C-alpha cells in the first residue's frame, strides 16, 4: 500500500477518519463535470437546490448560507457578526474544537469567556445554568459533536437553558450535520454550522450554516464585521441564489448530488439510524476487545468513537500498521495522542465496511498485545 | 442550448469569461480522484509540489500560501495582517475590484484611504508619487489586472515608487497570475495574491499568495488579526506542508496537475506569449469591427478585453444570443453594463478557440446592426 502522493492516481486508502472521509463515486463524478459561472442561471438553480436541501437536513426555515471556507471560517463569522465590542460571549468547550472557537473569539479582540469541562465529559444543563448566572452573555457557542473527544453534547437539554437567558446560540455541528438529527427550528438555534467533508461525505472546501432572523438582525447592529464573512452581504446575495464572492462550484454540485441521495434515496431518518448503528457496533466491538470508551456513558458520539488505551498499546504503531493494510484510523487529538485512538464512522460508511475494518483492526491489536 | 442546471450533466457552454473559466479535461479528471486526509503524508507531498510550483510561476523565493477562500479572502487577510490600528493604508483603485479592496479595509475598521483614477485609465508612477506625498502609508495595495475594466497597471514602473516610500505593497493578481508575467522578487512585492479560476484554469474554491519575510514580520506585530486568515499560523503550518484548517483538496490536486502542465508541457514563457497573442488578436478584431477599446492605449489587459459600445448595440441582447449559440461572453461590470462588454481569454483558451468564438460573435453583431 503506497502512501506517497501520485498525481495520476487517486488514494486507495479506506478512510475511517473523522473527516475528510470517504467520498462516494457519485460525488467524484459530480466534481468532474464542467460548470457555468457563478453568475449564471444554472448556478443559481443549483444554489437554490443546495440551500433548500440543507433546510430539510436541518429541519429549519432559516436562511441557509454557503461559504468558501472550512467550518472554522463560519466560527470566525459568528464571532465577528454577532458580538459587539462591549458584549460578552460564552464559549462552552468540551475539547480541542471548543477551545479553538474560544481562541477565535480572543484573536478577533472580543470579550470571549471560556467555560470548559474535563475532556470526555459533556456540557450539562446545570453547568450552563451556573455559568450563565456569573455574567451577562449576548452569545453562547458550543459543539454538538466534539471531534477530538467523541462526546456528543445533550443539545436538547442544554439549548433551552441558553435560550431562556436571551442569548443567541451558535452550534458547531461539523462532525454531526447530516449524520445525527438536530432540529434547528425546534431548538431555536441561531447559527448551526458545518463543513461538508464529514457526514455529508463530500471533499473539503465548502462550509454551510443556517442563520436565524434574530442573528441577521443582530449582525446589522454589529460594527467591524469585515467583508469576507459578513452575514448581511451573504444573506443579500443568497436571496438571488448567489454568493458575494466566487464559491467552490464543484463542491456545491457534489452537495446537490448528496442532498438528493440523502433525502430521496437513503432517507434522512434511515441515515440517522445507520449512524446510530455504526456507533453502537463500534462500542460493542471496543467492549469485547477490552477497550474502555473515552466519553462518559450516555454521551458517546455516533459519528466518531474514541477509545482509551486500556490495553496499553502503542497506538501510533497500530495506526501505521493499519495504514499498510489499507485502512486509515486516527490517533488521539492533541494531548490525547496515544492515550486514546479514534475511529470515524460517518458519511457513507456502511455496517459492512465497518465490520471489514474492525476485523483487520482486531488482528492488529491482538498481534501488538502478543509482542509486548 | 439548455441553460438550466442538470445534476447529471455538465455545462456545455464555452466560457469566454474573466473567471470562472473553461477547465481542461486533465483537471476535471484530477478533481474526481479520491484523496487521503489533509494530515497525511500524501497530502503534504502534494502541498509541497503546489507551493514549489507557485514559487516558479511568481519568480519568488517567498513563502507561498494556500487559502480555503476566494481571492477576496486574501484581500481581507492583507488588511487584517498588515495594518495596525493607527496606521494608514493606501488603496489604489482603477475599477470595481480596487474599490472592493478599499471597502474591505473600511469594513475591517482600518484607516483605509482610496485613491482612484477614471475607469479605463491605469495608475501612473506620477499619480502614486503625488498620493504618497499626501500622507504616511504603511501599506499600499493595488490590482495588476482590473477585471472590471480590462486595464493592466504598469506594475514595473509603479511598484519601485511604492517601495521607495518604505510601505509594504500588496498586489491582487487574480486575473493575471499564470497568464501575465509578474516577477515578485525582482519588484519586491510583499503579498501577491490570486484565486485559481482565472489564468490557472481551475474551478473556484482555492486562493493562493506569496508572502515576503517583511510581511510576515509585520503581521507578528499587528493585533486583532483573527484566526482564519492569520498569516502567522498559515506560515507555521506551511513549513510542514499543511494548512491550519482543512483545505480544498480536489482543487489543490488540480493545481498540481496544472502547474506541471504549465511549467513542463506548455512552458511558462510560451504561456505568457499565448496570452499576449490572445489579447492582440481580440483588439485587432475589435478595431476591424469598429469597436473602440475601453482601456487607455498601451494599458490593455492580455487576459480580458473590454470594448466600448461604439456601434450602439444592445449588449445584454448580444450576450444572450451568444449564449444560445453556446458561448458565454460578459456584459460590462457594474456601472459599465451595456456601455462596455468583455471577452475573457485566459487559462487554456487557444487562438483557434478564440477565432471560432469571434466568428460567431461577428455574425451576431452584424445581425444586430442590420435590425436596428
* Class per helix and strand makeup of chain A: alpha/beta
> Can you tell me the overall shape of chain A?
globular
Low-confidence stretches of chain A: none
Strand coverage percent of chain A: 15-25%
Instruction: Count the DSSP helices of chain A.
Output: 13
Mean pLDDT of chain A: 97
For the largest beta sheet of chain A, what order do the strands appear in spatially? 2-10-9-8-5-3-4
The share of residues in helices of chain A is 40-55%
SSE order of chain A: EHHEHEHEHEEEHEHEEHHHHEHEEEH
What's the assembly state of these chains? homodimer
What is the count of β-strands of chain A?
14
Q: Biggest interface, and residues per chain?
A: A-B, 75 and 75 residues
Radius of gyration of chain A: 21 Å
The major beta sheet of chain A can be summarized as: 7 strands, mixed
Terminal Cα separation of chain A, in Å?
Answer: 26 Å
Explained architecture:
The structure is a homodimer of 372-residue chains. In chain A, strand 3, helix 4 (96-107) and strand 4 (111-116) form a beta-alpha-beta unit. Chain A is built from 13 helices and 14 strands. Chain A is 42% helix and 15% strand. In chain A, 57% of the residues are buried. The model of chain A has no long low-confidence stretch (mean pLDDT 97). By secondary structure, chain A is of the alpha/beta class. Chain A starts with 13 loop residues before the first strand and ends with a helix. In chain A, helix 2 (41-57) crosses helix 10 (249-266) and helix 11 runs parallel beside helix 13. At the A-B interface, helix 1, helix 2, helix 3, helix 4 and helix 10 of A face helix 1, helix 2, helix 3, helix 4 and helix 10 of B.
